[in-house]
Every structure is written in C-alpha cells, then in structure tokens.
Amino acid sequence: MAIADRIGSSLAAVPDKLADEGWRRRFLRNVFVPWLFIMPLLLIHIFVVAIPAVQGIYLSLTDWTGIRPGNFIGLENYYQLFFEDETFGKALFNNIQWMAFFLTVPFILALFGATMLSQIKRGGMVYRSILFIPYVLASVVTTTIWKNLLNPRKGIGAALADLGIEGFDVAFLGRPDSALLSIAFIDNWHFWGFLMILFLAAMQAIPPVLYDAAKIDGANRWQEFRHVTMPGIRPILLFMFMMVAIWSFLAFDYIWLLTQGGPGGASEVIATQLYKNAFLRFEAGYGAAQGVVISIFAGFIIMIFVMLRRRGWDI
Amino acid sequence: MTAVGRVSLRENILQRGRNRERGRLLVFNHTVLLLMTAFAIAPLLVLAFNSFKSNSEIGSNPLGPPGSLILDNYERAWDQGNFAITMRNSVIYVVVTIAAELVLGGLAAYALARKRPPGSDLLMLYFLVASTIPVWMYIVPLFVQFRTLKLLGTMHGLIIIYVAGNAPLTIFLLRSYMIDLPRELEDAARVDGANEFQVLTRIVLPLTKPGFLTVGLVVGLGVWNEFTLALTFIHDPNFAPVTTSFFKFTDRFARDWALTSAGAVIIIFPVMVLFLALQRQFIEGLAEGGIKT
End-to-end alpha-carbon separation of chain A, Å? Predict the structure, then answer.
C-alpha cells in the first residue's frame, strides 16, 4: 500500500517534473537570456542618464554648491530664476530668438535647395555630397573658420571694403547687437545641409505621377510646390520643426566656442548660463534648476506636437 | 479610340512641357545649386589655403590661394597642438565607444527585436522618453557622481557617457534593421541546434551589417566631433580629445592663423577621407540617425 502509493506518486511526478523542466528552459530562453542581453546597455544608461536626471530634480530644490550637500530650499531657485534673475530672462529671450532664426532660415534654405536638387537628374549626387560636407565638420573647426572669415581686418568684410563695399568690416561677433545673430548664422552654415538631405529624401519618395497630374491641371511651379511637394514632405517637415524647436533650448557649443555668452551677456543662452553656474561659480543647485527648466521647455514642445497629432495632424 | 487619343494628347502635353522645362528650368536650378555649393565649400577652401601660407602672406592675402605651399605649418601645429597625444586619445574614444555600442546595442536590439521578452514595450518606452531628456538635465549631478566614483577626468568615464548617450539611437536603429528579418532563418538554425548567441552571431549579424555600419558611422562621427561633454568631464590635457584641446590651442595662438588653420585641417582630414569614401552610407546614415534621435 505504502509502496504502491510511493510508486504512484513518483509516477505522477514524472510529467510534472518534465513540464517543470520545460518551463524552466522556456523561461531561460524567452525571458532570462533576452534580459541578460538587454541588461548591460540598460544599466549603463540608467547609471548615466536616469539616476542623475532624477537627482537633478531633487538638487534643483537645494542650495547645493556642488561640493557640500546643500539645504532643501523648496522652489527658491525657480523663483529666483523667473522673478529675480534678470540675466536669466535675457538668456531665455535669446533662446527664443535662436529658435525663431532656426525655425525659419535653415528651413527656407533647405526647402529651396531640396526643391532645386530634386528636379535635376545629372550631378545630383555631387551637389548632395558637397552641400552635406559642412554638417560632418566639428564645431571647433567650423567656429575657427568663421572667426577668421568674420574678422574685420582680414576677413570677408575687409575684402569687400577693398572692393568698395563698405559696412561689412565690423566685428560681428564682438558687438552686442550682432553677436547672437552671427553665431546663429555660423551654426546654420553647418546645419542646413543636413535638413536639406532629409527634405530631399522625402521629395524623392513623392510619386512623379502627382507632378504630371499637376502639370496637366496647369499648375505653375509655386502651385506645384505648394500642393504636391509640401503635402508629400509634411511629416518630416513637422517632425523637424519639433526637433529644431527642442534643440533651440539646448544650444551651447557654438555659443561657447565663439563668445562664451558675451559681449556683456548679449549671446548668453540658458545652457551657457547653466554651465557657468554649475561648473565655474559653484552654484550647482541653481544650475540644476536651469537644467530642469530646459527639460520642461523641451517637454512642452513635445507635448504641443503630441496634442496636434491627437487632433489628427499627420506627423 | 477616344481613350487612346486622350492618352496620347496627355503624353504630348507632358512631353512638350518637359522639353520646354528642361532647357529653361535647369539653368536656374544649377545656378542656385552652384551658389549654395560655393557657400558650403568656399570657407573650407579658405581654410585649406591659409594652412599653406605664412602669417605675413595671410596678412596681405587672407582669402585667396597661397603663393607657395608651406608645409611647415602642419609640422608646427602637430607639435604645438599636442596632436600626437590628442589624436591618439580621440581615436581611442571613437573606437572604444563604437565597439562597446555595437556589442551592447547589438545584444539589446536583438533581444528586443527577435525575442521580445515580457517588458519589452515598457523598455522601448523608457528609451523613447530617455532619448528626449536633454544632457543639461543630468550633466550637473552626473559630474558630481563621477567625482565621487573617481570616474571624473578618466577616459573610460567619458566613454561610458558616450555609450549611454548613444544607446537609445543605437537600439532604435538596430532594432528596426533586425525586426524585418524573416523568422524562418532563425528557426532553421535553432532546429540545427544553435543557441541564442550563435543565432545572433551567425544569422542575424551578417544580415544586418548595414545597420551596424550606419550606427558605427553616426556614433563615431558624433564622438570625434563631440565638444560639450569632453569640455566638462576631461581637464587633463593628456586625456583630452582633439576638439577641446584644439579649442585651447586656438585660444593660445589666436593670432597665428597659419598654425590654427593647419590644426583645423588635421582634425577634419580623417573625417573627410572617410566621408569621401563612404558618401552614401554617411549621408543616409546620418539622415536616418537624425530622425531617430
């Protein structure tokens, strides 16, 4: 009886055990090993991005110097940013000017260039490659080139003055009224070719039949652009509007390399201020608050586009 | 009959239109494109010209081609700019970052594209949200964290940041390449007794090589040109990449245009060679990468 029981139970356990092993193998193959593959990169990313990002939110609520732990001061840093620190208002305004520049000038150039390029057959690759070259250059190189070219005594302005065209031999980067615009111009020289390539790729994906149909309907070139090209590239156009708007709040390296925010704060943006506060002035808590503010602006722009998409915009 | 007539009439109009346009329009197109090309390339030509001039020649002729080729500038720039060390550093940053990114990113993308373990969707959402977090949000706490952990100022510390920063892009790109592969290939390999790792290295990898090349180019170019993070995290000139070290160099020799121009050419030379060799991959890869970040 007892023996029979034991045999019976061990017999019953065999399929259980088999099933158990199958489950374990399946768990290993479908869950454990895949997550083992994912883990290294995920952990590095959490270590470098996620944890510090969350810490940043907390630190922005302290008067932390970056060396000793600070006291919790609530929203004091944010109050100071928006209501007391006039230089922050100026920097924010510069970011907005920067955005206004980058949402227009490179887009117009890129749309125009891509339209011209999409209509030619021979030599397209050569133009495409050359126009793309500035985009692969390092910012330190681009700024070195243009610092020299904009030099009032040895640059383009001086050459124009020699030819009798006066007015361009000024220190564009050294004057408060032209510094920011000059930096934007230089950054754009590097950037717009990239935008053009994106638009060109979208334009080449538009079926030629649509252009033929437009021609039969007697459309002129502007109407063709307006009613065939624009709808065809709309998704990438709107997406890049969003990205460029976000990038406008992150702008740093071209400004740091050319003027470090000067002269007299004329080209200061939030990121250059943040860098100075956190790494040169030991006001890390204040800098962290500026980092959070930048992220909030970026998140706000993303939200606008998500909402437009919900409303049925094709982005 | 009428249909045929209409079609040929339509073709006729189009053909005439095309012929008329071919002559007139394309002159305009090429004029515009040549002007744009000149705008893109002229500053680079001036840089190349100046790198072969003496400073006194730059003073009298700052924009035109050089009268004679002075190679001395390059030698001086290489020595004074510490390029022997910084070039080596930059090559290390680029190569190690690419290698780590491709290995770790390849593993993760494979798991996400082909195995889809529970939690995959949540993880993709994590990377999507993370990819929108600006570096300014975490740079300050990261700096302090790195100081505590003695990673500040070390090459491997900066490489870890580069690998993390490029992780979302790498995963999105590689995953999109891997997700299109037919399942049967893998299953056949598994039936033959291949394990997960073998399926990845023998089947999936060879078929998604273009994706890895794209990621390698995008990440490599980004690291070679990177300035902000290197400025923040590396202060010892012995570990500096070419970008931040060149920035200091141009500050020190601001008046010596011949020298700084030659230095700038040294920095862009490897990029230009690679770009000219792999134009298509570069342009398409960066376009793809730019959209996915």
Answer: 75
Domain range summary for chain B, segments of one domain joined by +: 2-60, 82-252
**Which DSSP category does B61 fall into?**
-
Helices (H), chain A: 2-27, 33-45, 51-59, 76-79, 86-102, 105-118, 124-136, 139-149, 156-162, 179-204, 208-216, 221-224, 230-250, 253-258, 270-275, 284-310
Bond prior to A263 in cis (omega within 30° of 0): yes
A120 close contact with B: CB closer than 8 A:
yes
pLDDT at A144: 94
pLDDT of residue B14: 53
Domain residue spans of chain A: 1-59, 77-310
Interchain CB contact of B253 with A (< 8 Å): no
Contact A174, A191 (CB under 8 A): no
Place of tokens 């590095």: A44
Query: Which residues touch A27 (CB under 8 Å, ≥6 apart)?
Result: none
Find tokens 């070195």 and name the residue. A144
SS3 content of chain B, % helix, strand, coil (to 5): 80, 0, 20
Q: Please, what is the Cα angle at A228 between A226 and A233, to 5 degrees?
A: 90
Residue A141 pLDDT level (bands cut at 50, 70, 90): very high
Average pLDDT of chain A to the nearest whole number: 88
Two tokens, residue B162:
């580069």
Closest residue, chain A, to B253 (C-alpha)? A144
Reduced to 3 states (helix: H, G, I; strand: E, B; else coil), residue A72 is strand
CATH tag, B82-252: 1.10.3720.10
Identify the pLDDT of residue B59.
Answer: 81
**Token reading at A20:** 């158990």
Residue of chain B nearest A248, judged by CA positions: B134
Rounded to 10°, the helix B135-148/A284-310 angle is 140
Closest alpha carbon to A287 in A274, A273, A270: A274
| Mean pLDDT, residues A191-197 | 94
Overall fold of domain A77-310: MetI-like fold (1.10.3720)
Q: How far is CA A86 from the centre of its chain?
A: 26
> Which tokens is A92 given?
């924010």
State the pLDDT confidence band at B174, using cuts at 50, 70 and 90: very high
The pLDDT score that the predictor gives to residue B2 is 41
Tell me, yes or no, if B273 comes closer than 8 A to chain A by beta carbon: no
Q: In this structure, what token pair is assigned to residue A180?
A: 């920011």
Contact between B290 and A198 using a beta-carbon 8 Å cutoff: yes
Q: Look up residue A274 and give its amino acid.
A: L
The contacts of residue A73 (CB under 8 Å, 6+ apart) are: A61, A62, A63, A285
Closest chain A C-alpha to B246 CA, distance in angstroms: 7
Q: Which of A109, A125, A140 to mutate to test the interface with B (most CBs of B within 10 A)?
A: A140
